[in-house]
Amino acid sequence: MKKTMIILVIVLLLSLIYSLLNTTSYSFVKARAVNYLCDKYDADKDEFELVDYKPSSFYIGSSGEWVQHLAFSDFSFEFKYKTKNFFVNRYKGKFYDDYQIDDIEKWCTEWLKENVDEKIIGVSLKSNNIGFYQKNTKTNNKYILSKKDAEDFVINCYSKEYPNCIFYYDEKIDEKDYQEERDYIKNTINKKLNSHMEFQVKIINRQYLTRTVMKPKTENDSWDWYIEYSSWYK
Questions:
Q1: Which of 16, 17, 24, 167 is disulfide-compatible with 122, CB 3.0–4.6 A?
Q2: What's the pTM?
């Protein structure tokens, strides 16, 4: 308890200091973020509209049920570029963005459908998957991915701590057969890729797909993504 109180006091003091520093450093960091985007996407500064941002801050992180530690979260920005909203984060002095995340999901899904199993209807990716790919392949943070990178991305964008989710649609499958089907899909994908990729498999049948489509959509609900592509499987 005493240790926790000390950590809380430290966090409050650091937060106060950082709130003052953030006020003076915000404009500088934002300018660097925009310069990074201009350089990467060969665009002008006025093409990027700031939507929102989160200043850097300290917080209490947890690495287990009872283990707490002091953690740091750097600046992150939400921009709008060519009608699309996306995020830019600063990490260890470098900037990373997820502007391409929607295209990458589509390219990876198409590759898996064509090369592994046509019943695969989606891959749910998050911003950090781009970071894992860059780390695992030692790719520059300004590298722009294309459709030809889909196979390489599927192999190298995962982490054991944050497994990707692959959506698999079979209108006939029963819930009692889910585990057997999941194992089959995992083994098939890893054999095809000659890898030991960690991922989750979500089996979707006709009843579940219909029920999900009927649900009200929320703006950031990743479960809604594969519904847009269900038209591929009429």
A1: 167
A2: 0.73
